[in-house]
Amino acid sequence: MQPLSEAFFQTWHPFALITGLLLIGAVANSEGFFEWSGSKLAMVPGGSLVLFACMMGLVAVVTAVLNLDTSVVFLTPVLIHTAKSRSIVTKPFLFGTVFMSNSASLLLPGSNLTNLLVLSGHRTNGIHFASMMLPAWAASVLITMLVVAVWSRSELSNDSGATINRPEFVPGLGVAGIAISSVLVLALQDAAPWVLLLGCTLALVTYLSGKLERAELQDAVN
């Protein structure tokens, strides 16, 4: 039993950080942040290649700041929706999201669970880690973008140029959570407990707020 408890105390930090980041991402998604971002990028002029590059840039940033799991879960449907709004085949955006989420997960400790497990025995903050990984991260992002673009050049050549209406979006708890968690991951050597606490708090507040709104709506109907 003792080895099990020792293993738990040695490895709980990465899972706590990932859980907190996923909760923050869920709150941001419920507020429409990712859909708004994707719709805004869909209106970028310059053709399908420019749109693809912008979307891959979004995936890279979200992956680095939150983590690859959040990026894949929340951005994949956004990119597919954006591609369809421009009558572009979704394949480059679908595969690009998956590949870029992995490639861009090098920059920060919280970007990838593997980073956290490797660093579990070392005390280093996000800024120091990012400074060491920045060249490799930039090269990985650029190569991934170029490879997928060349591989899917025939699909990306078909662009109707049509745009979609940008949905209304008011920054809320999700955006604040993303900003605060980014600062915590960069500044602290062990941000896991604080990010988990932040994620749980935001998720609880969002849930209670939604429940209160539904109750008020029901009262108004009755």
Helical fraction equals over 70%
Mean pLDDT: 80
Termini separation = 56 Å
Strand coverage percent: under 5%
**CA radius of gyration:** 19 Å
Shape summary: flat
Number of helices: 10
Q: Biggest β-sheet: count, sense, barrel?
A: none
Order of helices and strands: HHHHHHHHHH
Structure write-up:
The chain is mainly alpha-helical and 222 residues long. The protein is built from 10 helices and no strands. Helix 5 (91-103) packs antiparallel against helix 7. The longest helix is centred in the last third of the chain and has 30 residues, at 192-221. It is flat, with a radius of gyration of 19 Å. The chain starts with a helix and ends with a helix. The model has no long low-confidence stretch (mean pLDDT 80).
Topology:
Layout: H1 2-30, H2 33-42, H3 48-65, H4 68-85, H5 91-103, H6 113-118, H7 126-151, H8 153-156, H9 173-187, H10 192-221
Helix pairs in contact: 1-9, 1-10, 2-3, 2-4, 3-4, 3-5, 4-5, 5-7, 9-10
Question: Brief description of this entry?
Answer:
The chain is mainly α and 222 residues long. It has helices spanning 2-30, 33-42, 48-65, 68-85, 91-103, 113-118, 126-151, 153-156, 173-187, 192-221.
Characteristics of this structure?
single chain, 222 residues, mainly alpha, 10 helices, 76% helix, flat
